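Help needed: design a sequence for this.
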């Protein structure tokens, strides 16, 4: 059984998702990364680099969860 989606429509220009907010869930992503250990998104100033298998990764500077 097919039910049409009521919240999105394709207009004459081909655009859809008029009810969806534009942009990313994370806002401006310039300078943000996720912690390698806990996965929290933080600005790069709150992360510290470390080497693992000859690659640079980043983790929380003050410890994860703080």
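Sure. Designed sequence:
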């Amino acid at each position: 059984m097919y039910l049409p989606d009521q919240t999105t429509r394709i207009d004459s220009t081909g655009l859809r998702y008029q009810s969806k907010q534009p942009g990313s869930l994370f806002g401006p992503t310039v300078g943000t990364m996720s912690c390698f250990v806990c996965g929290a998104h933080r600005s790069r100033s709150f992360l510290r680099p470390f080497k693992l298998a000859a690659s640079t990764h980043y983790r929380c500077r003050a410890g994860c969860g703080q």
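The mean pLDDT is 76.
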